[in-house]
Design brief:
The complex is a heterodimer of chains A (about 375) and B (about 450). Chain A has about 375 residues and is an all-alpha fold. Chain A has 13 helices and 1 strand. Chain A has 2 domains: about 220 residues, no CATH class; about 100 residues, no CATH class. In chain A, helix 2 runs antiparallel to helix 9.
């Protein structure tokens, strides 16, 4: 049956798609042709599936939290853990379906056009996208945003590995600037039906947007650390994200330099803000708020769009942390700055690398001349 | 001033099939091949025709650009066949041996009493000149040039490589004579790299040269890596390198007056039956090694002249390369592995990556095959992923991309003068995107050669 898909066969135009499913089933029997005759058993499928596995705890927690927040909002806490999770799962599943159907569809089509094997890159982006949007985002908006991000963020540059900005972040940015009413404020973060009776003093605002107003959920250290607060689906639980971070750091897929740099950046600007009296939030609490944890662990460390050089990773991570808090503290219009910080630093990463490499090379040349 | 360099970066590839330290066979090949394609930068002009008698050391081909550079026959006998490829490209000169080993006598001389012109003359005449490789670019050395320095590495860290002490430990006198000859050819120094991974190096007693010790995983034994730590090559520099086999052959020319390139060759690899050493000549047919292949059909085997990282696939009907003292036999990995990429454990597959568990079994040797273990993709992992297996002060991915783009300015900046493809072989091995990094570097070097000519 395969012969139809080979060169000259009836369905040759579908060969990328067939390849994709075939190599999904088994490691292909292709052999080395040039250069090293033996190769490491690592491939991108393995690396990227590990990234997805690392994000699973955050996704599972996020689904539970959707149910839990709904329960809090309507004052009905009868559901147990499984019940809450199932409630959330049913709300998040459509987001996943839209993300993968739209994204993978475009990815397959463009690989087909380029005549390349389908790359696994979107498996990861597609898994992240539902985790960084509000649960109540209309599905058609998500579909439009995914299409925009995959086509203009990735495929026009040549596909996975060639993109300048992270497609998942770009999806979120597109939604944020195109449909701000659905992406900020206090109405989008908690799922409830218009007909449902809400508790007295209900607010759907995230902790970042609260000015000490009463809320049905706590905003203390442990609430934020465990993640029982409203927010984008997967971003709230720092502990679930840290589990993922351990996997990514242990396997070496994500750079610890970026993560540590990011934390230092947050503490630096957060500390200045605290000392100067701009904010009353202690700087370490900034690490727990909003999308910082999810962003620095899963988004900023994307090897394609982050800085490539070792020294550059420190700078890149630090800048993300610092910019994120700068937006939080000095921009009254928008409570969270992580998305914009990553987007901006994605764009600046090649420049950071260029400076690091040029400095390194000219220093080395000077050393050689004097030697 | 001798130093010890401890190199942390690199990767020893744990492949099964190391050769036992014994010579299992002395091969007196019926036919040997002189392959001009073994010599990068050599444009052959034939000096013999089919049926001509030759002696061991008689010239069979000369370089078109520099007629003094000769290739000579390693055996005495008659020219049997001239093998040509597409566009009549000269591929090999097959010489039928008469088994008598009659040699041209170049006259034994004390190299330390000769001047530069006499040494050069002796090397050119005897056909040993092509052992001198010029860096940058890894091409034939130009006899008109006096190099800044000459470098010799006395060991190899490549997978399953022949044990230098076993192969050449008994030829110290010849190696010393070789060094004496090389010192005449440069105004700088002759640098000799010693194996720091062994308890002591057999070559630590060499004189008239600077000895440096290198300890660390592959490619610590690569002469290019050693140069970059001792005295990096800059744009205006020319240095030469000689392999240990070449050094010994040069030494023997002066001590015995003969062209003698016979050496021990390690027959290795997971598919080699009883891997061990044979005594052979460059250009020995692989068919003479058939005893090592076992009963596996030839099409299921890959026979490599050289090591698994940078060697040439010559096939069971091919010939040993001029510079190689190793043959590696692998299985062609055409089998498919069900859901291999997602299995948590693949104990029979090696990976340097932490997403597998090979690190739990540091002593295990793997029966590797030629399977690519994945599909080709664009570079996705960042530079540091590759740099950790490259003990040079370089950005490997930037260099490879500059070569792909053909951007000469960037290639210079990222260090094209310092590398040969073999130096980045470990980067190619670990690449999850399965790029042919060595071929990219080769492409860059070829472009430099074309533009700089």
């Amino acid at each position: 049956m395969n012969s139809n898909f080979e060169k000259g066969g009836k369905f040759y135009w579908l060969h990328s798609t067939v390849d994709a499913f075939e190599t999904f089933l088994h490691v292909p029997g292709t052999v080395t042709k040039k250069g090293s005759h033996v190769r490491d058993s690592i491939d991108l499928k393995r690396i990227l599936i590990l990234v997805v596995i690392a994000a699973v705890p955050a996704a599972l927690f996020g689904m539970w939290n959707v149910g839990y927040q709904h329960g809090l909002a309507v004052g009905d806490l009868r559901l147990n853990i499984i019940g809450n999770w199932w409630y959330g799962f049913l709300r998040v599943l459509p987001l996943y379906l839209v993300s993968y159907i739209v994204g993978l569809g475009i990815e397959f089509a463009s690989c087909q056009i380029r005549g390349e094997e389908v790359s696994e890159g979107y498996l990861v982006s597609g898994f992240f996208i539902p985790l960084i949007v509000p649960v109540d985002i209309p599905l058609w908006m998500l579909g439009v945003a995914v299409a925009f991000a995959v086509i203009f963020g990735k495929e026009v540059f040549g596909g996975t590995g060639m993109n300048i900005v992270n497609p998942a972040i770009l999806t979120r940015a597109f939604l944020f600037f195109s449909y701000p009413n659905y992406m900020s404020g206090s109405d989008c973060w908690i799922h409830y039906k218009p007909t449902e009776q809400l508790v007295d003093g209900f607010t759907g605002a995230t902790p970042l947007a609260l000015d000490g107003a009463s809320a049905q959920y706590g905003t203390g250290f442990w609430d934020l650390f465990i993640g029982t607060v409203p927010g984008s689906v997967g971003e709230t639980s720092v502990i679930a994200i840290l589990l993922g971070a351990v996997i990514l750091l242990w396997t070496g897929i994500a750079s610890w330099k970026i993560m540590v740099g990011g934390v230092l950046g947050v503490l630096f600007v957060g500390g200045i803000g605290d000392l100067a009296g701009i904010t009353t939030i202690p700087c370490y609490m900034q690490l727990l708020y909003g999308g910082f944890a999810f962003g620095i662990v899963f988004m900023a460390t994307d090897p394609v769009t982050s800085a490539q050089t070792e020294c550059g990773k420190w700078i890149y991570g630090f800048l993300i942390g610092a910019l994120c808090i700068t937006v939080r503290l000095f921009n009254p219009g928008y409570a969270e700055g992580m998305m914009l910080a990553i987007l901006l630093c994605n764009v600046f990463a090649p420049l950071i690398d260029h400076v690091v490499i040029s400095t390194h090379i000219s220093r080395r040349e000077k050393k050689l001349k004097t030697a | 001033m001798s130093q010890t360099f401890v190199l942390k970066k690199g990767l020893n590839i744990p492949i099964a099939g190391e050769a036992e330290l014994r010579v299992s066979k002395t091969i007196a090949p019926g036919i040997v091949a002189v392959k001009p394609t073994d010599f990068k930068g050599f444009l052959p002009r034939l000096l013999v025709k089919e049926g001509d008698p030759v002696l061991c050391g008689s010239p069979v081909a000369a370089d078109k650009k520099n007629a003094d550079i000769l290739l000579t026959s390693p055996v005495s006998g008659t020219v049997k066949e001239i093998v040509r490829g597409e566009k009549r490209k000269l591929l090999a000169i097959l010489i039928e041996s008469d088994g008598k080993r009659q040699c041209v006598d170049f006259g034994a001389k004390d190299a330390s009493q000769l001047d530069a012109a006499q040494v050069r003359e002796a090397l050119l005449q005897s056909g040993l000149w092509p052992w001198l490789i010029q860096r940058p670019y890894g091409i034939l050395a130009n006899p008109e040039v006096r190099p800044r320095d000459i470098f010799v590495s006395t060991f190899s860290t490549a997978p399953l490589s022949a044990d230098a002490a076993f192969c050449f430990g008994s030829e110290l006198a010849a190696a010393q004579a070789g060094i004496c000859a090389l010192t005449k050819l440069t105004d700088g120094k002759v640098y000799v790299g010693l194996d720091g991974n062994a308890a002591s190096s057999a070559f630590a007693g060499l004189k008239h040269c600077e000895l440096n010790t290198f300890r660390g995983p592959h490619p610590a034994g690569n002469v290019g890596v050693q140069i970059s730590h001792i005295a990096p090559i800059r744009k205006e520099d020319t240095v030469w390198t000689v392999s240990l086999a070449g050094l010994v052959a040069i030494g023997k020319l002066f001590t015995t007056g003969k062209y003698d390139v016979r050496r021990k060759v390690a027959v290795t690899g997971p598919m080699a039956l009883q891997p061990s050493y044979v005594d052979a000549l460059p250009g020995t047919p692989m068919q003479d090694l058939a005893a090592f292949f076992g009963n596996t059909p030839a099409e299921q085997l890959r026979v490599i002249s050289g090591d698994v990282l940078s060697g040439t696939s010559v096939g069971a009907a091919g010939y040993l390369g001029y510079f190689d003292n190793q043959v590696t036999i692998l299985r062609e990995g055409t089998d498919q592995e069900l859901l291999g990429w997602i299995r948590p454990f693949r104990f029979n597959q090696f990976s340097a990556d932490r997403s597998y568990f090979s690190w739990l079994l540091p002593k295990k040797k793997y029966a590797m095959s030629t399977n690519l273990h994945g599909g080709p993709r664009a570079f996705l992992m960042n530079d540091g992923y590759y740099a950790k297996v490259l003990p040079m002060d370089l950005y490997p991915v930037y260099l490879a991309k500059a070569c792909l783009a053909g951007d000469i300015e960037k290639m210079e900046k990222f260090g094209i003068y310092e590398v040969l493809p073999e130096d980045l072989a470990t980067c190619e091995f670990v690449d999850p995107s399965k790029n042919n990094i060595q071929a990219m570097i080769e492409q860059g070097i070829d472009l430099m050669l074309k533009e700089m000519a």
